[in-house]
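Quick log. Single chain, no ligands specified.
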Amino acid sequence: MSRAFVNEDVDVVEELPDRRISTHPNDVTQQGLMHLEAMLDSAREAHAAALAAPDRAAMAQAARDLRYWSARRASARVIPDPTDTTEVRFGSTISIRRADGRVQTFRIVGEDEADPARGTISHASPLARSLMGKCVGDVAKVGTSEVEVRAIR
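-> predicted structure:
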């Protein structure tokens, strides 16, 4: 190959594909809205820093994150905390008992604020969807197993 067709000085970085945006409604708690706003602010700062630096890979990453968090903030719909604890709703804190006897407690929140390790799950998760509308004592099928609603707060 001729050296005339090689340009080693050009750092080519293609635009990154957009992060997937869920097709589920972007319901969030008040805390979730604050999380979205913090992530958007962080993305704006990272984008500004990337523009100031000659790092094209950082620019592509920052631009992608900024597009994602801008879209998520724009589509966010704050759902007030439930006042009725007779049935499972968005924002409810639920204790369940699994078939193996384990009792777990978690809160149903928006997709971007969900963190199972910290006791929150997405309203779009199979577990949350199977529990919506259930009352204390009700059993819900989750995959091949069942869970019983023990408490709703």
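The first helix runs from residue 30 to 52.
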